[in-house]
Amino acid sequence: MELYLTFLEPHRIRYTTADGVLHDDYVEVKYEFTTIESSIQLQGDLRGRDLIDWFDVDVIWSDQHRRQDPYGNVRGLGTIQRMKLWRDRYSTFHYLTFYANHRRRWKEYLLDDFDREPRRRDDARRQLQLGVRGARRGSAPESSQGHGHGRERRLSIFRHRPSTPLPNGNPPQSTGDIRYLGIQFSRNNNIQSGTDACMKKVILAVNAGSSSVKVSVYTAGFGQSPVQIAESQVSGLTAPPAKLKYVRRGQVVTKDGDVDEKVNGQQDAFNLLLDTLINDHDLPEIESREDVAIVCHRIVHGGDYAKPQLVADGTYHHLENLNDLAPLHNANSLGIVRLCIDSLPGARNVACFDSQFHSTIPDHVRTYPISQDIASKNRLRKYGFHGISYAFITRAAAGFLGKPVDEVNLIALHLGSGASACAIKAGKSWDTSMGLTPLAGLPGATRSGSVDPSLVFHYASDVGKLSPASTKELHISRAEEILNKEAGWKALTGTTNFGLIADADTWRDHPARRLAFDLFVDRVCAFVGSYYVTLRGNIDALVFAGGIGEKSARLRAAVADQLACLGFQLDAAANEGGDGGVVWDVGKPGVVPRLLVCQTDEQFEMARMCAEEEQFWS
Ligand SMILES: Nc1ncnc2c1ncn2[C@@H]1O[C@H](COP(=O)(O)OP(=O)(O)O)[C@@H](O)[C@H]1O
Ligand SMILES: CC(=O)OP(=O)(O)O
Ligand SMILES: [Mg+2]
């Protein structure tokens, strides 16, 4: 890594000396650093990107520029000296710079548009493959249809620098888009050597949702963008049999794996996932429980906390007091925190809150019209949830739209087992559909969403006969249980699998599924309409996320159809296609506001927050 940096383009430097003389000059700048870290810091700040890794490489090739000539000799794009992998600070996009010998001068070249993680990395063969963002896996290489729509975007090295000859000095041989780059590391260099100096630690990010537990593993240094090395999840906890998915370094190891019946609930699921990670011999970064340095936990209700907290006894007990305000989540998550405290002795536990993103909601939006004495004494207000996801969505969508985060206006929909909507104004939460608890707003897998509050009193009695006698059968905590655990899709249709509910081929035999589907579309559109007015029509995009938002093209189509009156226009082919990137565009080209899908990543967002907080590293 460089301890000297020279900028060949003159830089304008303005400064005032102690005796008041103003200098304002164009100079050729040369920096000399005493540490590698400060060199990395400056390079990152100049680019607005974090350095993830760097490698000394022998040769670089692509699917269009074959690595071997007909005689078996290695022939790539040219002789490369050093390659650096960057991640944008405001989005999930990756960039590559490499030094190549161009006309006897080492120059730095930039390639952007890469997938979020290096897809294939083979340390034994000293090779790495980087997929191009938006390139469809398995599609015909010569097709360039869909350019500019964001769904079949492919990289052309020559597109970005049309006048740039190949690094080896020859003119471009092909102008076709490429789908991946292959990189052969130098023999002289250990692939890991680049990052060792940065003191990487292993971070585990745990997301206990109401129907799933997702655990991702990252390596990161303080202030660096985390690099995912594995992701695992148990899903379908409310629609048994639960399923296991395990992906190591971008390679699917297990998909739809059967989960033992004994895995009953979020804590069992976490134990299963931890064992899967530790027992995987191909994941040397986490060979034993001692290897985990930081565990960040998604805690749905964080009360007034506006930042992640290191879990100490005080925090733990404070959070325990909030358990009743997120009955499907907080107790399970704290159970997992307790497991980690007991079984991962070397780890620091950090609580990241779903509610923290919503701490910017203004008073007149978050206040309930009740006695303000009681409200402030009992802290009764709108808190809002799914905030870790909304923070990720905001940054990813802003990056996709090419806007700074603090200028982007979005209506975001996180539609999973729990579902919510959020009005995001200038990158910050302005309103959201969940409230004091995650029960309010949209219906979910087992939740009713908003109903007339008096409904609970009539649930077990005849309408009009409300009296202490008629409600004594129904204790208020039982009512809470019914609305949280025995309502929603489960009550309406008997299943919590929204894939089944959205399957129109089954509606004839199961009319309740159609009712549930139409009801959901109605409630979602009602929030979008309301937030459209809240944001005064000043919206860059409507973003779909969460298990249903990401996977159900039919739900997106039905919502977009009803919202056409507000100017949203869906591109049916893009909606059905699915691009596989972090954000993809499903709107008609050129129409504003855009319609986007975001593969939200709450685990990454938590790991990123932890990597930025110095107190979790010292
Ligand atoms: N192909 C699909 N089509 C529609 N919905 C789906 C599909 N696959 C999963 N889902 C739904 O996504 C939801 C889970 O979303 P997710 O955000 O992962 O859950 P959690 O709320 O537990 O975090 C479930 O309701 C599930 O039925
Ligand atoms: C807050 C909430 O409902 O979360 P999830 O959708 O993960 O259950
Ligand atoms: Mg979730």
Automatic annotation (TrEMBL):
GO biological process: acetate metabolic process; acetyl-CoA biosynthetic process
Positions marked as site (Transition state stabilizer): H386, R447
Binding, substrate: R298
Entry's EC annotation: 2.7.2.1
Keyword flag Magnesium: yes
Protein name (Swiss-Prot/TrEMBL): Probable acetate kinase
Active site: D354 (proton donor/acceptor)
Gene3D superfamilies recorded: 3.30.420.40
Keyword Kinase attributed: yes
Similarity field: Belongs to the acetokinase family.
Gene Ontology molecular function, alphabetical: acetate kinase activity; ATP binding; magnesium ion binding
Residues covered by region (Disordered): 122-152
Residues annotated as binding Mg(2+): N207, E602
Key words, A-Z: ATP-binding, Kinase, Magnesium, Metal-binding, Nucleotide-binding, Transferase
Pathway(s) where this gene product acts: Metabolic intermediate biosynthesis; acetyl-CoA biosynthesis; acetyl-CoA from acetate: step 1/2
SUPFAM superfamilies named among the record's database cross-references: Actin-like ATPase domain
Enzymatic class: transferase
Residues binding ATP, per UniProt: K214, H414, L415, G416, S417, G418
Xref: PANTHER family: ACETATE KINASE (PTHR21060), ACETATE KINASE-RELATED (PTHR21060:SF15)
Reaction it catalyzes: acetate + ATP = acetyl phosphate + ADP
Cofactor list: Mg(2+)
